[in-house]
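Q: Sequence in, structure out?
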Amino acid sequence: MATPTAASKRFYCAGGTKGADWGTALATGAGKGLLITKSGLGLKQKYVPNEEIDQIMVKGGSIGPQDAPDWPLDFFMRYSPGLLGSYIASLFGIAGAPAAGGATSKVHTFKWADAYSNFFTHVEERPGKIWEVPSAVPYKLSFKFASGFLMATLSLRGSTLTDASAVNTATQMDAITYVDTSNRVKFLPTIWMNAEGGAALQASDAIVATEIDIDYERPIDSIPAVALDGIGEPKEPGFSKITVKLKLPRATAANVAYLSTLFQAIAAQKMSMTFTGALIEAGHYYQLVLGFTRLLVQEPPAVPLEDMISTSLVFEAQESAAAPTGMTGHVRPFMTLENLATTDYLA
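A: Exactly. Output:
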């Protein structure tokens, strides 16, 4: 079919695939669709007028080089996120073959590596055109609560943008399918928190939050490439930054005491957020777990004097010296997904 020309986003699709050589596009297709609600992808390139001597008014100009495409993708987080799961796994850096959950369910574990591990060809349809970024790196992931679901925003930086690809044409876009079009993660998390050096997390460590904001970010550079109208493969010149913000709806003596017991005492905590979906098989559900081995409160907990007093906590995630009790094999932030996918998200 021809590329759609309608004005509504309902008619368009987006997809991608794991890349091999930076700056070289590969074809998307079946199973590689991206279920997004919004994208900020666009060309970043300027017209540069000829402002030189011996002319009263400018008489011409040139198109300058492309700046790196840098844009967000908004989407509902799913228990089976498909290619978006691969984008997220790349940001974390380590995935691997899944472990057995039950008889059919599989548990995927993403660990925060020293550096990101993969880049992707990213493709989106626009009216009458197909926009392609030959190589793109996911460098930031944000989670928040919206409309009863866990919403995500993933930021990417790419090599260049073209609307004249010979690799991803209408044929490839028409072949796009999705791993799962339902099964979204509802905002019903179980949040457990206790001291980093304390016992394994359990139900008695539960805290109730009405809002969460979680940001995972790798600071990547953007260096123009000599042989490419765009940038070379990014590197990470600075420290990773991961923050967790929680709003506790009811101020109590216990959580107001976080000012002294956590912030002023520099008392590190560990935390897990577990989202549980539909039953897969006996004893096993679709599940998403966000794990943090070491969290430090970064600013005095907010306790505004209002009609209903709440408390806000802002944590920075750090690396533990050793895996805390109950988090065997983890010293850095991690994510697990239990679903039916049988292959490595970075394969």
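The first helix runs from residue 83 to 92.
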